[in-house]
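Lay summary

Proteins are chains of building blocks that fold into shapes. Our project writes down both the chain and a compact code for its shape. Here are two examples, one after the other.
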Amino acid sequence: MPRRWIRIAAFALLLTALGAATTTAVAWGIALSRTYERFFREAKASINVPQRAEDNGPPTYHNGIVYWPAEHQFGITTLRASQREIVNRTGTTAELESYSGWGASRRTTLVEVADKPFDSRHPPRNPATESIERRYGWPVRSFWLLSQREWRNDVIRSTTCEGYFVFDPGSKGRAGDFGARGVQPSGPEFAFWLPIYILPLGFTLNTLFYAATWFVPLFGIRIARRTLRARRGLCTRCAYDLKGLAPSASCPECGQVSDVVAQPIP
């Protein structure tokens, strides 16, 4: 194999590695930026300015599972699904079963009945009755984690989380509840978690995006400079004027054998 192709393959591998590392760093940085204090500030703001259901569209119902509209923030997408029953079905529209209890209010929620799942999110698995999937990354989502809860009589009986790595500086088993909330704990005495489940398509797209971003400062500027010098009849290394020299002669300044065919002075 020519050395040129070996160099190109090495550069491609380097850019791919840099792109993958940047994709991971961005997703993890977004996850770490979700602090406990910020979570409560946003929750308080959402109470003061309640979000209308029609902003994100109605929930979708399929086979006993309600798929709630996705919640988008910068670098984060939250997908919720829960086991619920419908009443008063009319064609493709129905109402969720009304219930009341601690922290719940009586209201009617319309849902769209679908013949297939709404999207690729994970529905709750028995005995869980609610699943919360969070996806992280920018410009597209590349990592995800999943938390599932079992509700009984409006009380959380159990919570399970999967798809995250726990960095534990001094505590034991404290990250599960925070992972379910989608936030990082506030103090250094608590553990920090990082999503590790990969979304293949998103990870690939982000890797290509960041590889192209790294290409510009590492190689793109150099290639553009060499190309411009070659078009002007200059040495591609030191910009020495090669006019008047024999074709493919070495540069008198730096000694490089240029691939520029120098044009003799008429």
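And here is the second example, written the same way.
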Amino acid sequence: MIVCCGEALIDMVPVKVPAGKKPDTETGFLPYPGGSPYNTALTLGRLGVPVQFLGRLSRDFFGEHLMARLIQNQVRIDFIIRSGEPSTLAFVHIEAGKEPQYVFYTEGTADRSLRPRDIPGRLPEETRCILFGSIAMTLEPVASAIESLIFREHTSKQGRERLLISLDPNIRPFMIPDRKAYIHRFETWLRVVSILKMSAEDLAYIYPDRDRDAAVERVLSRGVRLVLLTQGAAGALALLRGEGNEVLQVQVPGFPVTVADTIGAGDTFHGAFIAWLELHDRLSPSQVASLTRAELSEALGFANKAASLVCTRYGANPPTLAEVKAVKD
């Protein structure tokens, strides 16, 4: 079982209004379910991996839609709290060849209102991995709630190997009022994180004065075992710190596709990589540490295929396992 923690929101995705039609504007917006951890949970569910979403959802009609989509995609909802606050909205601006830009409306919304006391006292025995990150970790009280969970689970073995904890910061700079404080907090999370998935832009935001290799070295020195660096159309790079502290580096190219938009691509990549580990019985800190070059390459390729497919669709619409397997190398 994989537990995904964080925001569940509505992406307002721009669409062109046909000429001569009302209203008098060139662009309208369509609501799509979204939020980085939410998208990752959907990815895992569609890939046939047991997954649970932990968060707080509104009872408004957007919240009902978010909840129904989880259920339809085999995502368990035991750890979802329903509330009367409204759903978070994220308006998206898309330009060809650029990363999507977002404006978030989060004040007093349901998903940001998750509190430490809302966290379950214990996770199911079958839980093997916790995923967290994104804008939830820039907002209170939800950031402190999720933080309390990952620190608790890292120190509690509960008669088994520690859970694997995976982080995707999915940084939106305008959501971070104090960059220095955020980076300090980010580096405290790294002490309990085994897998860190980042975009090249995320890495540059955190460590602007370091080149890529120096920045990755810094991350690995904080305790992270595996760094997954997504590079858009250029593919993805994995850097694994082995048991002897040697670093194994593997890179795979991207898959050329006709892009509708890139919303949810990184979230899909993250979920697909974790799904590959689960499907191959490699989902634990010790098993990640012993991944071979061939296994890393296969896992990266699987995640890249899934991410490439979501780019051919509007909004975050992850592929199924059959769809990923149908993509030719």
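What can we say about the second shape? Residues 293-310 form the longest helix (18 residues).
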